[in-house]
What does this fold into?
Amino acid sequence: MFNPIRYAFKKAKSENRPALLTYTVAGDSSKKQSLEILKSISKKVDILEIGVPHNTPVADGSQIQTSSYRAIKNGVKVNDIFKIVKDFKKFDKNKPIILMGYYNMIFQYGENQFLRKCKISGVNGLIVVDLPWPENKKFSNKCKKNSIFFIQLLSPTTTKSRLKKIIKDSHEMIYFISMLSTTGGKLKVSSKQILSNYYRIKKINTKKNVVIGFGITEKTIKSLRKADGLVVGSAICKEITNSLKKRQNPVTNVYNVVSRLKNKIK
Amino acid sequence: MKLKKGIPVIDQGDKLGFWGGKFGGNFVPETLKKPIEDLEVLFNKLKKDKNFINERDRYFKNWVGSPTRFIKLENLTEHVGGAQIWSKVVSDANGGAHKIYNATVHCLLAKRSGKKVICGDTGAGYAGKMLSMAAKKFGLKCKIFMGSKDIQRQQPNVKAMKKNGAEIIPVYSGSQTLVDAVSECMRFWVANCDKVAMCVGSTVGPAVFVRICGWSTSQISRELKIQLVDEFGSIPKKLKLYNCVGGGSSSFGFWNEFMDYDKKQCEFIGVEAGGPAKSDKHAAPLTYGSKIGILHGAAQYVNQNNDGQIDETESISAGLDYPGISPLHCFLKDTKRARYTAASDEEALSAYKLVTKFEKLRPSLEPCHAFSVAIAESKKMSKDTVVVVNSCGDAYKDRAILEKRLGKKYV
It folds into this structure.
């Protein structure tokens, strides 16, 4: 299946650096502004993750919760999110986009209808935080049929036999959760430890692109640059919150953070 | 969808933890898969272990205080003038509510798994209070997550938790009630599952927590079955069991041992919180036909909008103020084994006035919802009908609300 996510990793590899993935919540702080943020950081970022805000998130720390509540309060609906993706793709059609969220939002929309809309608007991958393996088998196959990557999550608590089974069923990209934490937690294990877990995964199948997320900031990103890709989410959401507090422009401030992140892994 | 006979309902889920093929399951982040599986293995082993069951029964008897009373409400029966109205006074249990059963079992499991800290959620404060008591009893550190709105309205239980040495973590997100407390508690567990055990305060959450809680509160119906036979010589021909339903832990425990009886002989009536009469908000997903959705790791009927955002609820009783409902109750509803209805805030308050006027019993606002419906329906029933209401909590915690709504003389 053709999927620009594959080329994003290829390009980063050819430049001898990890792919940079950012996470921002759709509709934070408004529909218009979240699109502006995506457009402004697009040049610096290899893959854009867009959060589908949910009001009972069981795996998100306070930064992403704040962004999500803000977006919901500002009235963002699932259809608005597809519209944001579609509008963005008009601006940069080859930049891969991954939607990340909780299963209830997909379930209420209807799996098939949701995937149809993903395809029409240009979504290339999905991360569903609370749809683990093997529960996700059926949905992940549906994604594949629609040329959308279903991105399996792995965690330090995933047992070895489970790792093998999940990787076997995974598509080309896998998301490794760096530590036991909700999003935005302080990195409480050493980069060495994280990378050693990361190589444990890579060893099972070297062809899969494995990204590391959770706890990655300007301070920590450089130490993990050997990974195929690195995801920064909470640090960006925090920047939006702080900008709003200081009555500064979140678009410029987020762009600056992302530029600094990119420079650290060049 | 069918309820099987001869198999405990908690064990009627499929391999992935779904009851009736669609309720429950494990919609959890990958990080929790392993700790949940570990807990499942431990629980499945221990629930067949005679020593463990003896240990549980010993604590239930000597520490929780089993059996709790089963009493006839003579004056209320006479006043209503229909069925005989009885009550299972579960609030006799140590700490004043049924939450002690689940808390005790979770602490016993935590001890067996070698964990030194246990965390839990609470709405009315009973789940938290009991967990703090049990944790203290078994030498575990205890962290309780509680919505800041509930902290304000359930102060007596907050004080009790502090006295037991628990750390209370106020939750300011969302509606600042039980739903947010459960989310925050799960988040804490995600980040600390290697060292910390989690107790979910009701028959909700990932499948194993639903099962453990249902297994624990079933003590209520085990006792009641014996007490009914003692009183009537056999299980009455017309038995009606009324219970309030929030998450659904007390009602499930109150009904479990009677599951295999024909519903014509033994009917289950679950009463949800209808909220204020003048408000659109409620905590009654079964009564008002909410759609299936995912909340806190399980598929269930849940109050939500078209997009799948969970709705805010409103109820005078913090213990029922939850947008979802146990997968076990969804299963009992769809198999038609139990019937569900709702009572409003005002109806619960009237029931409180009536019960306390006629009887030496002070049910908390949660069971007052059940009393309200039981009293109304009893009027039309024959005298040989035995109505039993589970008085699963004591009104001590509701003093401030009762004083505000009904005046000082009701406190």
User: Anything to note?
Assistant: Chain A touches chain B at residues 54-61, 65, 69, 72, 77-78, 102-109, 129-135, 153-159, 162, 177, 180-182, 185 (CB under 8 Å). Residues 4-265 of chain A form a domain with the TIM Barrel fold (CATH 3.20.20.70). The CA atoms of residues 24 and 50 of chain A lie 5 Å apart.
